[in-house]
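Quick one:
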Amino acid sequence: MSPPEKSEIIKNVLKTLISISSRKTDFPYTIMTIEDLMKHLETKYKFLKHIRINNNFYKEDSGDVVTVMSGINTISPVQLGQAIHSIIDSMHRSLGDNAGHFFIKEIRNTLSDDHLNVIKEMGVDLGLMQLESEITRLHREIREIKKEP
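Output:
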C-alpha cells in the first residue's frame, strides 16, 4: 500500500483538530479560530492557500469542512511538516485552557498509524509536542507558586 498523499495527510490533521477542538469549545468558534490561524500562517507558508476551511456551519448540508487542493502535494515534506507543527501548536495555544491537558495526545490517538508515521517523517513528533506542552504547563505552575506569598 502506498503512503497517503500530502493532501490527505493535511486534510485529516485539520479535520482531527477541528473535531477535537469543537468538543472543547463550540464548533463556530473552532472554525473561526482555525481560519484565522491559517490566514496568519499563510504569510509564512504560502502553500496554505491550497486549503479551504468551509465555514458554512449554519447550512444543513455544508459538505466537507476541509478542502485541500492537489497543489499541496508538490510541497516538500519538511515544509509541510513545519506548517503542520505550527498549525497544531497555534491551535493549542489559541484554545488555551479550553484545549485541555492532553490536547496533542488526543490528536495522536485519533490519527491513523499511517498518518502518524508520515507526519513523523515530516518532522512532526506529537509525543514530543505533548511533552513540551507538559513542561511549559509545569513551568507556568511553578512560576505561579513562587509568586504566592
